[in-house]
Amino acid sequence: MPSAYLLVSHGSRDPRPEIAMQHLAQMVRNKLHCLQPKSQMVGVAYLELSPESLHEQVIRFARDAIACGCDRLKILPLFLLPGVHVMEDIPSQVDLARQVVGEDIMIDLLLYLGSNSGLKRLLERKVTNNYQWILLAHGSRRSGSKLVVEDMAACLGAVAAYWNVKQSLLLRVRELIGAGYEKIGILPYFLFAGGVTDAICWRIEELRLEFSEVCFFLAEPLGMSDELVDLVWELLE
Fold first, then answer.
1. How much is the CA Rg of the chain, to the nearest whole Å?
2. Which of 56, 95, 139, 177 fits as disulfide partner to 164, beta carbons 3.0 to 4.6 Å?
3. What is the torsion angle, in degrees rounded to the nearest 10, for the CA atoms of residue 79, residue 119, residue 17 and residue 237?
4. What residues contact 75, with CB distance under 8 A and at least 6 apart?
5. Is residue 37 predicted with pLDDT exceeding 90?
6. In Gene Ontology terms, what is one molecular function of this protein (predicted)?
């Protein structure tokens, strides 16, 4: 019997991430059509800022999947870090859904997107050698999640900073300037553009005014690409 697939993201008041999520779901659906013609049920759900709680969204999608003849539902968290949302919030919501759905369909919670080592390839394409780079992640209050960012930054020859840690970006910039760097690139470790990436853009403009002798370059977040779809598919298989 075919499987159904549910892509879970954080949720946002900004419409752009939702548009990107729908686009990603359609691209995964197209890939499924080529590889598994009988399994094309791909949906999206949101942990926060949705009229329904996540477990209610999972229950509704699971029931639709059962009606379409699916016996397995695979849930992929589209998160880059193993923070509280990935390690606690989403699993608890999925468990609530399992209790309601019962044995009518098997619900598998897959590894989060950031666990795919192929993300490094996508980030490497954004990093140029003529800049010293800062990998700017959102950050998490969960201990251990920073190690993932630090390791990724090291692989890229960059240093890490965290948007939700006060002055983290500024301190990194000052460190690099003190070390003699005059060209600094900031790579947002975010999946899609939205409110936070807009705020980062404004912060970079402030840094340009404060450190006029330095050339700053702000890269785009990961964004939509065929390569991203391939990484998602690797986790869904």
1. 19
2. 139
3. -70
4. 5, 6, 8, 58, 90, 94, 107, 108, 109, 110
5. no
6. lyase activity
- Report field, pTM of the whole predicted structure over 0.90: yes
Calpha distance 190→208 (Å, rounded):
22
DSSP string covering 160-199, please?
A: EEETTSTTHHHHHHHHHHHTT--EEEEEEE-SS-SHHHHH
Task: Give helix 54-67 / helix 90-101 axis angle, nearest 10°.
Answer: 40
Q: Look at residues 91, 77, 25 and name the one whose alpha carbon lies nearest to residue 46.
A: 77
DSSP reduced 3-state for 3: strand
C-alpha 74/C-alpha 107 separation (Å) is 6
Say what the pLDDT of residue 91 is: 98
H or E element at residue 42? strand 42-46
